[in-house]
Amino acid sequence: MFAPPAAESQGPSAPPAGMFDSMPGYEGTVAGGGGGFLPPPMPAFPVPQPEPGPEQPHWNIPSITEDTAREAFALFASSKCCYSSAPAKDGVITKMDAFNTYRYRLETFTELRSTEWSHEPYRGQPVDAFAQPPPGPWDILAKTPTFYVDDQQIMKVPYTSSMKPCHDCVGMGRKPCKDCAGAGNKVCWVCNGSGYRHGDDRCNHCSGRGRENCSHCQGQGAKQCATCQGKQQLLVYIKLTVKWTNNSDSYVVEQSSGLHAENLSDVSGKELFRDSQYLVYPVMGFPDTTVVNAAQRLVNEHQGKYSRTSRILQQRQTIELIPVTKVTYSWKGKLNNYFVYGNEFQVNADNYPATCCCTVM
């Protein structure tokens, strides 16, 4: 025989709407659901206007040497168990073509605030509701965030905390056990309540009683209320969530080397330009016009999108060069090629000319 499945435990009931007081400035606040997002107030002082970033009169585009290309190819071949080292060792480089691929990245660091009614078991915490009007959600001091690092802080809104009887257990601290309907015991699942298993053999599981103590409540018929944890009272308050987010978007200039674009997401490049201020000005003077156009578009999108729901604290824009070099080499009278890309000098050689057919058993 197998024991019957235990009854599923049900979560606490939702608190009634009348449980929450009407707080000045927070009349629309609801319970649960992640809270309502609150747009920041209009600044009391003029917002500083973005300034053009530092001029970059010389955009230095580095290229790799033959020795670097050869060493990267050798490391690549040695990392493959089925690749012969001969092409990397004996191949003669005949041509190297550099492809200058740029990545523009814009980061907008924002602060978002939301409120919702919340509660916790009352353990003697201060009760301050209506002692004075609560401060507005954007007037409450939060910690100083680290720029461009996602973070979150949760706090109680001052002067909103009150003590209420627990709605889930009606202030009793305990709830009837759902598994045994509050009886503290239930019909023995082995003998189905008869007290015997076969003929006159007494049921060993319930000692012939036909009933067994409920394992969920240890025979007490009630369990501690999970909502108030047996305290009978709840501290009810408005919870403020402050969320800092680094919103990032990138644009990579399309390159015609033949290397798949997805390879470039795994590597870093050489930083050519960096500008960080409250609001950045779209980059100007860069030799690739597609980067200039992308910067204009992304800056306008970010400043329009995030200023409506959040407070922009800082913006940063960077341009980096992701070097891509197509290397053509001769081995055994035939021309082949491979790519060396990124600061890490990663190699891609889809048509390596000396592989063996090895299998893993």
TrEMBL record:
Location of the region described as Disordered in the Swiss-Prot/TrEMBL record: 1-56
Name of the gene encoding the protein in the UniProt record:
ssuh2rs1
For bias type Pro residues, the affected ranges are 38-55
Task: Give start-end ranges for the coiled-coil region(s).
Answer: none
Which PANTHER family does the UniProt record give?
A: PROTEIN SSUH2 HOMOLOG (PTHR48465)
Report what the protein is called.
Protein SSUH2 homolog isoform X2
InterPro entries found in the cross-reference section: HSP_DnaJ_Cys-rich_dom, SSUH2_homolog
Which GO MF term does the entry hold, naming one? heat shock protein binding
